[in-house]
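Treating backbone geometry as a discrete language has practical consequences that deserve illustration. No coordinates are needed to read the tokens, only the vocabulary itself. For completeness, the protein is quoted in full, as a sequence line and a line of structure tokens:
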Amino acid sequence: MEHKEYSIPFLGLKQGKHEFNYFVNNTFIQSFGFQEFNDVSVDLTVHLDKQATVLDFELQAKGTVNIDCDLTSEPYDQPVEAKLGLVVKFGDEFNDEDDEILIIPHGEHQVNIAQYVYEMLVLAVPAKRIHPGVLDGSLKSELLEKLEELQPGEWKLKEEETDPRWDALKNFLTDK
């Protein structure tokens, strides 16, 4: 899928700063074959500083991504905020091997930022996804109760119970 709406035509723009606004939803993310999000609601602002030989982009995203908790599988809204800088230069052929510098052929008149938006949003979500209700204790679920039930009890030696193998070593502390 091309995502033509994310192609920014720069040919007719004057040099200087320009702003573009987008709303990113789950349909966009799923079009990349990524199915881990239940829903996406993110506002994206793209700042473009057009110079004579370089296009300097700054992408800023803020919103929520609905995902499932890793512990309970309960869905929740994860706030996301991300920034990405991208420099576009002109060269003989297309080259996107560098994460921060995109080279497009001379004569191009637009830049498609869809792949960068997708990657930025996927990476903005924490690797470990924990429902806020788990952290503050407000979430009640059968799975959480079962996890607590199965959690091993703390193993502590009573003070008077010591391992005799270590008692000989304690003498080193007192023998001088």
Notes: Helices lie at 26-30, 114-124, 132-136, 142-150, 164-174. The CA atoms of residues 164 and 170 lie 10 Å apart. The longest helix spans residues 114-124. The chain has one domain: 4-149.
